[in-house]
């Protein structure tokens, strides 16, 4: 079963969306959280992928990239009874598998615009600022490019939620002065930063003693090898091969550019802002977006290092509460599950 939270939402908002997509009901982001960040408390209503979900019917959660950190936050919210009206616990999750996830944040967040010494503030006209302005504009016009749903209804950005004049004023304020959508702590860009993951790791703390943990870590060592397996459904023959070539070339160009943007700077201000973090760990082997160090397991912000080990050949040797690590040679986009493929392959048990 495939839950699909907003690609631009914060870890908190995404975890809330995942909970109600799986359990069913109207998404409740929490009164305190919603008032703090200035968006609606309630979101969309879902029938539930697995309404029977509970401590006696736990699930295995799998998340790629920010999805990996999202499912960690989801387990944390379950363990702290954050969902009003529900009696939850961390035991609702039997295992967590993360794929190329930035457990310790990524320098790419700063390369794209997060201010090194003042995150979540964003540098004006940076790639992140421009992207946020474009997304806000598309949401204001209620447009879905190529059918992509930003799932940001709770921010009330569309003119249909306010008015042309009110929505336009908010859009201009966001572009010219400050955007609550991208220049606060309640968005995906900030939650990919080292600043945010340090704080989230502190909140989440140690691994849950009854949950199995596995990190699939990419180092891009095989990324330049062309793989003819199609990433999209429904196409055959020459059209399918052409699509595969275009996807592969885009992936390599896009990630190579991001890697260049990320590693060309020395991050002097970030070193001053986070003196306890050794930034050399963030300039080692990478999948194009996240270093191997960040993908392996949570470390920054933790008082006690989590127990970790390489993935054993025999899964029966795995123990709950331990972060197991398995390396693969793909880049950050090498293992991406589409909605179509996920719905036909992933199952909740």
In words, what does this structure look like?
This protein has 349 residues and is of the alpha/beta class. It has 12 helices and 7 strands. The chain has helices at residues 11-23, 31-37, 66-79, 108-111, 127-140, 164-176, 188-191, 194-204, 237-263, 268-273, 292-296, 339-345, and strands at residues 25-28, 42-46, 59-64, 93-99, 212-218, 308-310, 323-328. The strands form 2 sheets. Strands 3-4-5-7-6 form a 5-stranded parallel sheet. Strands 1-2 form a two-stranded antiparallel ribbon. Helix 5 (127-140) runs antiparallel to helix 6 (164-176). The longest helix is centred in the C-terminal third of the chain and has 27 residues, at 237-263. It is globular. Mean pLDDT is 89; it is low at 340-349.
Sheet with most strands = 5 strands, parallel
State the helicity in percent bands: 25-40%
| Shape estimate | globular
**Content of β-strand:** 5-15%
Strand order of the largest sheet: 3-4-5-7-6
In sequence order, what are the helices and strands, one letter per element? HEHEEHEHHHHHEHHHEEH
The radius of gyration is 20 Å
Total of helices: 12
Taking the alpha carbons of the first and last residues, their distance comes to: 10 Å
Low-pLDDT runs: 340-349
Topology, please?
Blueprint: H1 11-23, E1 25-28, H2 31-37, E2 42-46, E3 59-64, H3 66-79, E4 93-99, H4 108-111, H5 127-140, H6 164-176, H7 188-191, H8 194-204, E5 212-218, H9 237-263, H10 268-273, H11 292-296, E6 308-310, E7 323-328, H12 339-345
Parallel strand pairs: 3-4, 4-5, 5-7, 6-7
Antiparallel strand pairs: 1-2
Helix pairs in contact: 1-3, 5-6
